[in-house]
Design brief:
Strand order of the largest sheet: 1-10-11-12-15-9-8-4
Strand content: 15-25%
CATH superfamily of the largest domain: Bira Bifunctional Protein, Domain 2
CATH architecture of the largest domain: 2-Layer Sandwich
Helix content: 25-40%
């Protein structure tokens, strides 16, 4: 590696550390084989105030100065390119003269040597500045939908199986941890000895219920035209970062587990346990173009998910609500978007026309599943401060957990659906192939939970609990997957 390249890389790493919200960035470990990333630098340059405001409402206050820096750097890069044009043209002409000269070439060579140092210096400055600008632009979160509240509070959309004027009454014993232990459904003690806190054994009917939930969620999605995929749970760390998942969150708490490498593998790309199937599914089309006529592509997959931050803030330390490992059925889709507009931001309605349709379809699928499971739920438009880096808009559905009445009035998230526009596809180089051969557009991505097993299972135990009988009523739609079983009774 040349001295100039080493200096440029060193400068880039210092920049990434300076502008990262975490102790380190998975971007630092990107191998040469990783997809090339294309942050929207021109859009940031032309809309500095918008991006500054967006950083604040997204709870990225430390990033507020970055859009201005990106804009200043972009202008300086243009100046450097202009400065090098003349020198490069002169060198090109001198090279032609040198090739054509048969006599003394020393004067020509001397002229070329005189020009090259200044040109090399300008090029080195440009390389470092370009790397710095790319890193800063990539550190910014996605823009935010006008539908998204910016006051820090979610906005109520509607209810499922719930009358706010006449809420249901629950037995004090409607606690899934107590129910699970009483009926021999969940073993936390053995799991703690085996794997540590945040793990669990699902036993007997609960193990069957897990499989029933997976099969039911997949069947609903399939009936709506989604193709089934079984994705891996181990992913390259740089792919997780490209999807918007960092090793640590803004509270400096670990989010993703990285897999330790042996000494012989040092220098190879690191791998992480996937926090969600969104990561491997999004990566399926990394470095690829999708023919426009194939869009939208809609996939649904069941996988094991791993969350390192479970219970990290000292809450939900009991039961199945917040755990380290769980099964989740995930929906992921790529869709079309308007052509690039170099004059500024595209009209929001046009920009999200296709992705908004997919978001509505995902939420409709979630509502069908939860409604048929008989769970009382509420649908929320989530605030900007709650959105992950990649999300442009997010809708959550929360179910009623009687055991959580003292926390959030019993409501707890069971599904989430997000529009990510081109945030992920720009970082994974997933483009749309137009009929005319153009590859200028980056596909929009949309993702949503079809069903997260532990929380839904816990909600079924609590809402289906009949204290006077000491049993749990199994939702009608799941009985066919459980041999016709109607109740989980006392042993």
């Amino acid at each position: 590696m040349s001295t100039r390249a080493i200096e440029a890389r060193s400068f880039l790493l210092r920049c990434r550390r300076a502008y990262s919200t975490t102790r380190f960035s998975l971007q630092d470990t990107r191998p040469a084989t990783a997809p090339r990333q294309y942050p929207s630098i021109t859009q940031i340059r032309d809309n500095v105030e918008l991006y500054e405001h967006n950083a604040v409402v997204r709870n990225y206050g430390s990033h507020k100065a970055i859009p201005r820096r990106v804009a200043d750097n972009a202008r300086r890069l243009k100046e450097l390119d202009q400065q090098m044009v003349g020198s490069r043209q002169t060198l090109k002409e001198l090279q032609k003269t040198l090739n054509a000269t048969k006599g003394d070439k020393s004067s020509i060579i001397a002229q070329m040597k005189e020009i090259r140092p200044s040109l090399d210096a300008l090029q080195a400055e440009r390389d470092s500045l370009d790397s710095e600008t790319q890193a800063m632009a990539l550190s910014l979160p996605n823009l935010t939908s006008s539908e998204t509240p910016t006051d820090g509070r979610p906005r109520m959309r509607s209810y499922i199986n719930y009358d706010a004027e006449n809420p249901p009454q629950y037995s004090p014993s409607a606690d899934h941890s107590m129910i699970g232990e009483a009926l021999g459904l969940v073993d936390f003690s053995s799991a703690s000895t085996t794997s540590g806190w945040g793990f669990y054994f699902l036993m007997n009917e609960a193990a069957l219920l897990e499989q029933a939930l997976i099969q039911y969620a997949l069947s609903v999605a399939m009936n709506r035209g989604w193709s089934v995929v079984s994705p891996p749970s181990l992913v390259y760390s740089h792919m997780a970062a490209a999807c918007g998942f960092q090793p640590r969150d803004q509270h400096d708490e670990q989010q993703i587990w990285q897999v330790a490498q042996s000494e012989r593998d040092v220098g190879k790309p690191t791998r992480s346990l996937a926090a969600t199937a969104e990561i491997p599914l999004a990566s399926m089309y990394a470095n690829k173009t999708i023919p426009a006529e194939r869009l939208p592509i809609k996939l649904v997959g069941s996988s094991r998910c791993y969350r390192a931050e479970a219970g990290a803030r000292g809450v939900d330390t009991k039961g199945l609500y917040r755990v380290h490992e769980f099964t989740k059925v995930e929906m992921f889709a790529w869709t079309d978007c308007p052509p690039p507009n170099h004059e500024g931001l595209i009209d929001e309605a046009a920009w999200t026309e296709h992705s908004s349709q997919l978001l509505d379809e995902m939420v409709g699928t979630q509502c069908e599943i939860l409604s048929n499971l008989g769970l009382p739920c509420r649908i929320l438009e989530m605030p900007s401060s709650d959105l992950g880096a990649s999300a442009y808009r997010k809708i959550d559905i929360e179910a009623m957990f009687p055991s959580r009445k003292k926390r959030d009035d019993g409501w707890g998230e069971v599904t989430s659906a997000s529009i990510c526009t081109d945030y992920q596809s720009r970082r994974l180089d997933t483009r749309i192939l137009e009929p005319d051969g153009s590859r200028k557009k980056f596909a929009h991505t949309v993702n949503g939970t079809a069903l997260a097993v532990p929380r839904v299972l816990a909600a079924i135990l609590e809402n289906g609990w009949r204290g006077e009988e000491g049993c749990v009523v199994i939702p009608q739609v799941l009985r066919g997957y459980m041999g016709g079983m109607e109740k989980i009774g006392p042993r």
